[in-house]
Amino acid sequence: MTRRLATFVVALSAAAAACRAIPAPANGVLSVSEVQLPSPGVVVGDTLRDSTGQVAPLRVYAFGVGGQADTLHDAVGQFVLLDSGAHLTGNGYLVGDSIRASVRVVGSVGMLQTSAATVSVTPRPDSIGSALTAAIATVAFNPLDSTATANYSTALAANVVSMDSVPPAAVQSVVVHYAIVYQPAASVPGAASAVLVDPLGNPSTVDTTDVNGQVSRRIRVRPQAPTVADSVVVEVTAQYRGVLLRGSPVLFVVPIQGPQISGSRRH
Known about the structure:
Elements: E1 4-9, E2 31-32, E3 41-43, E4 62-64, E5 67-71, E6 76-81, E7 86-88, E8 94-96, E9 100-109, E10 112-113, E11 117-122, E12 127-130, E13 139-140, E14 156-162, E15 169-170, E16 175-182, E17 194-197, E18 206-208, E19 214-221, E20 230-240, E21 243-244, E22 250-257
Parallel strand pairs: 3-11, 13-22
Antiparallel strand pairs: 1-6, 2-4, 4-5, 6-9, 7-8, 9-10, 9-11, 12-14, 14-15, 14-19, 16-18, 16-20, 17-19, 20-21, 20-22
């Protein structure tokens, strides 16, 4: 296979050379970071971009014996692509050549090498919509047990597609943002009555589309939720080149019933 190589100067911050308890390595580099990807995916025919839609290079950071407090100046980073589907420019920018689920990239500084990071080469994302096939069930929460299954909504699933093909193609590796734009006032002043969570129940407002172009988050109703029926409204958005995709924002309305003391515990 063809190996593509790009070299550029790694950005860094300061650290004055002073007396060290541990002798510095000959080239001054004791460790390197993982490859820093601006985004998990690059569109075919485009350059890898950051969260604002601006083109951005791959990066790797080099550290001296002081760790992150000793980020080194003028360390030279190199990158190699281990798979076809993309190429690197001479200043560390990655360009998508053909659609691939995964292209591996390895970085190095001197003799130190990172583990392989992966980036997807995707079709152009242009639309986002709801992937729900049924109405959102009412959440009848249990105020005495924050882990009860009754406190969680069904998955608020959305999908990102490209209209460049027929039928439309799913687009993976697109960063999608969830936000609660309305929630009822909590029974405790200043508290939130609901929070967005990932499938494991951890607070999360960002997801990345899978190979089917899908993302999902859920609402967890907190014990401070009001005792009357209301709803939580969630807004879902995604962008390409800093422009919202067609269909953004996707709105989900999650009905909330008054609290129910009974309820099973999540496992």
